[in-house]
């Protein structure tokens, strides 16, 4: 595979072919045509980068036409890859070599299989029933991709949070990729949330095998998390933890449209409410961040939460013209 930067003429030709490939894939092509596109992507890292750039443009055009617009990463690539592709029009040398493998892998995952895309907007929750009968509950601002084959059921949680209720089928393992976490289940139920630096797993039924950083899930050494347990997963590290009933209820309260707070810091509480808001609540004073708060609120009841704050603490919520709210200490 060539890593030589394209000349202007070559890049123009590659970009044109990439745009044509994206157009063909949006027209519901057959398996042979999809394979031809995948072969072209895999033929040269410059093809992969051009394809990602062309698809980013197509995704953006769809978002601009949407109401409300979709904000965030492309449905198949991490924010770091997207930022690199969109912010730098000349990817050459080492940057090209470093990015091409990831771009090829994600593009191939999507188009070598019959992948279905499901997503929710900010403030939206949704239940998806997969072709095998498994149910997926998506929380606010979440995206999954599902590739259902005869041998396996492969899900990618691209962003956000989802609870999986897996239909029992030993012959077709249920595999979930979430950031650096890989999860394997047969007939079980578990909640997965992608946070800024970790992936949070909560098992409500059955057993889930966990790995991180590409370890083999079939290995006996892979941690197995049973119902009533959870894990925090970082690159190359899995930290199991036992959860009591209150913690289990709190982690899955979103399914009822509820935020439960029990001694969380104000910073953590604000983070929870902001998941459901297009205009954020902002901590304007770092001294407020570690105040401990509690209560049970509907996900769209930020106004009641803020009223409770202003009543119980020396805090004032100041609205801004863009709809955001600034929390400051009362003088």
Can you describe this structure?
With 331 residues, the chain is an alpha+beta fold. The protein is built from eight helices and 19 strands. The chain has helices at 8-26, 31-43, 45-65, 79-87, 93-111, 245-252, 266-274, 302-312, and strands at residues 115-119, 126-129, 135-138, 143-148, 153-159, 161-165, 174-178, 181-185, 189-194, 199-205, 207-212, 224-226, 229-234, 237-242, 258-265, 281-283, 292-298, 315-319, 325-329. The strands form four sheets. A seven-stranded mixed sheet has the order 1-4-5-7-8-11-12, with helices on one face. Strand 2 and strand 3 form a beta hairpin. The longest helix is centred in the N-terminal third of the chain and has 21 residues, at 45-65. Mean pLDDT is 80; it is low at 65-105.
């Amino acid at each position: 595979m060539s890593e030589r930067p394209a000349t202007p003429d070559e890049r123009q030709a590659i970009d044109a072919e990439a745009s044509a490939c994206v157009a063909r894939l949006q027209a519901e092509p057959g398996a042979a045509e999809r394979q031809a596109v995948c072969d072209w992507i895999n033929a040269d890292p410059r093809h992969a980068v051009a394809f990602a750039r062309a698809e980013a443009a197509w995704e953006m055009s769809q978002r601009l036409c949407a109401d409300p617009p979709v904000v965030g990463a492309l449905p198949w690539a991490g924010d770091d890859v997207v930022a690199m592709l969109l912010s730098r029009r000349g990817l050459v040398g080492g940057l090209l070599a470093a990015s091409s493998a990831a771009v090829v892998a994600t593009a191939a995952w999507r188009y070598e299989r019959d992948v279905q895309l499901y997503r929710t907007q900010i403030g939206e929750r949704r239940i998806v029933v997969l072709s095998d009968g498994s149910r997926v509950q998506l929380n606010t601002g979440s995206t999954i991709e599902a590739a259902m084959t005869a041998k396996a059921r492969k899900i990618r949680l691209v962003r956000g949070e989802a609870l999986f209720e897996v239909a029992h089928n030993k012959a077709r393992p249920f595999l979930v990729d979430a950031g650096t976490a890989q999860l394997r289940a047969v007939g079980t139920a578990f909640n997965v949330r992608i946070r800024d630096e970790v992936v949070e797993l909560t098992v409500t039924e059955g057993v889930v095998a966990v790995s991180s950083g590409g370890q083999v899930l079939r290995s006996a050494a892979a941690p197995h998390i049973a119902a009533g347990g959870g894990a925090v997963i970082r690159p190359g590290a899995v930290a199991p933890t036992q959860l009591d009933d209150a913690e289990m209820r709190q982690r899955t309260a979103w399914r009822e449209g509820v935020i439960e707070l029990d001694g969380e810091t104000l910073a953590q509480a604000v983070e929870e409410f902001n998941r459901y808001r297009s205009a954020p609540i902002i901590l304007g004073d770092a001294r407020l961040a570690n105040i401990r708060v509690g209560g049970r609120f509907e996900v769209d009841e930020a106004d009641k939460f803020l009223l409770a704050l202003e009543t119980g603490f020396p805090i004032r919520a100041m609205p801004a013209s863009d709809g955001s709210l600034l929390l400051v200490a009362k003088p």
